[in-house]
């Protein structure tokens, strides 16, 4: 791969998840909090010292271990000629407020992918649906400002900052939802009867999968139909598809539906996709492969993520992918699919907001906009 230098021209450009990566942001774990209670967040970890209703910083030893793995990832990428930038952590323990609500803590700056998305030459700040994450964009603003100064063609956009009043959430959602049997949870997911109302557009950037001209956006606990509609109207040159999966707790698409290269998607077997979506890929000659079973049965302590972070991979180019080093079955599967695999220890990062894809944001990938789905089918 070509080596990127600080003196090289700065360009924002990324149309998909697999074109050759030349510039990326890697998050930091510093100061990450178990959030204070709020309508969007349910945390109850009594065995780890955080029973429901409590909040505070993640332990220093966990933070140090996560930062060690994040720093290692940055070195691996730099060793392959990829420019790596890092955000500036804030004091996430401080309370924050708007004129309509107050919140006793923030969250962190590790999962860059949740907050930002690159679509072509546009860098877009997501709305976010957690009050604790409303100001998280500030950790990344110094980098965004520097890109804007350096790249005259960059489009810097921010989705409408949401009000996040009580009207944006279903009252008493978590207690009622957790009491439901699994089949009723799935039925509510299909109907879109989740945490968020449609009072305002809401979406996390990590619910967007970019496949050239087509963007697949998961309706989830962080993304509502109004958010998908806003993206569709904001990006008229793209086809923006709202999708759901049989996942009782849908939260970000990148541990469920992972495009690896043109014609190939890795899919979580425990979260079946809609038949219409599968048919759409089939008529366009795309293959959907079920991800290998994760090595681990559960997430680490103080983590809100699932064990399917095993498939939360970072594609470096159409033939090379970074995978969590302990996920040997996933590594073997990707080898069998023809990839060169770069194993990266990353399990200690999970409590800070996710895996390899979550922790990174591609600023530049070589390539241009392409249409990988020329045949229409059904609502797609």
Automatic annotation (TrEMBL):
SUPFAM superfamilies in alphabetical order: Pentein
Protein keywords: Kinase, Serine/threonine-protein kinase, Transferase
Gene3D superfamilies: L-arginine/glycine Amidinotransferase, Chain A
Matches recorded under InterPro entries: AmidinoTrfase (IPR033195)
Signal peptide per UniProt: none
MF annotations from Gene Ontology: protein serine/threonine kinase activity
Domain of life: Bacteria
Family: Belongs to the amidinotransferase family.
Name of the protein in its database record: Serine/threonine protein kinase
């Amino acid at each position: 791969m070509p080596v990127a230098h600080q003196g090289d021209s700065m360009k924002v450009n990324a149309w998909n998840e697999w074109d050759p990566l030349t510039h990326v942001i890697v998050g930091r774990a510093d100061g990450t909090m178990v959030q204070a209670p709020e309508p969007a967040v349910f945390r109850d970890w009594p065995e780890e010292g955080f029973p429901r209703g409590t909040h505070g910083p993640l332990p220093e030893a966990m933070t140090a271990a996560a930062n060690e793995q994040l720093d290692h990832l940055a070195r691996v990428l730099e060793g392959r000629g990829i420019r790596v930038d890092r955000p500036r952590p804030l004091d996430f323990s401080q309370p924050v407020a708007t004129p309509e609500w107050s919140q006793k803590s923030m969250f962190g700056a590790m999962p860059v992918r949740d907050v930002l998305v690159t679509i072509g030459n546009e860098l877009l700040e997501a709305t976010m649906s957690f009050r604790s994450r409303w100001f998280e964009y500030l950790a990344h603003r110094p980098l965004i400002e520097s890109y804007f100064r350096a790249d005259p063609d960059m489009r810097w956009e921010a989705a409408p900052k949401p009000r996040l009043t009580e009207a944006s959430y279903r009252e008493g959602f978590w207690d009622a939802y957790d009491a439901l049997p699994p089949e009723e949870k799935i039925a509510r997911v299909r109907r879109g009867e989740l945490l968020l109302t449609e009072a305002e557009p809401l979406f996390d950037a990590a619910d967007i999968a970019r496949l050239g001209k087509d963007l697949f956006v998961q309706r989830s606990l962080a993304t509502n139909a109004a958010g998908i509609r806003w993206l569709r109207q904001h990006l008229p040159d793209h086809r923006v598809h709202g999708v759901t999966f049989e996942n009782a707790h849908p939260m970000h698409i990148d541990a469920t539906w992972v495009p690896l290269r043109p014609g190939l998607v890795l899919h979580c077997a425990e979260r079946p996709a809609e038949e219409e979506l599968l048919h759409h890929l089939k008529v366009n000659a795309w293959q959907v492969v079920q991800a290998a079973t994760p090595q681990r049965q559960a997430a680490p302590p103080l983590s809100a993520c699932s064990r399917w972070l095993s498939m939360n991979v970072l594609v470096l180019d159409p033939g090379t992918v970074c995978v969590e080093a302990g996920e040997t079955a996933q590594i073997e599967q990707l080898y069998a699919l023809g990839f060169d695999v770069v194993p990266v220890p990353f399990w200690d990062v999970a409590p800070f907001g996710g895996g390899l894809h979550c922790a990174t944001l591609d600023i530049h990938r070589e390539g241009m906009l392409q249409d990988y789905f020329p045949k229409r089918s059904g609502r797609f």
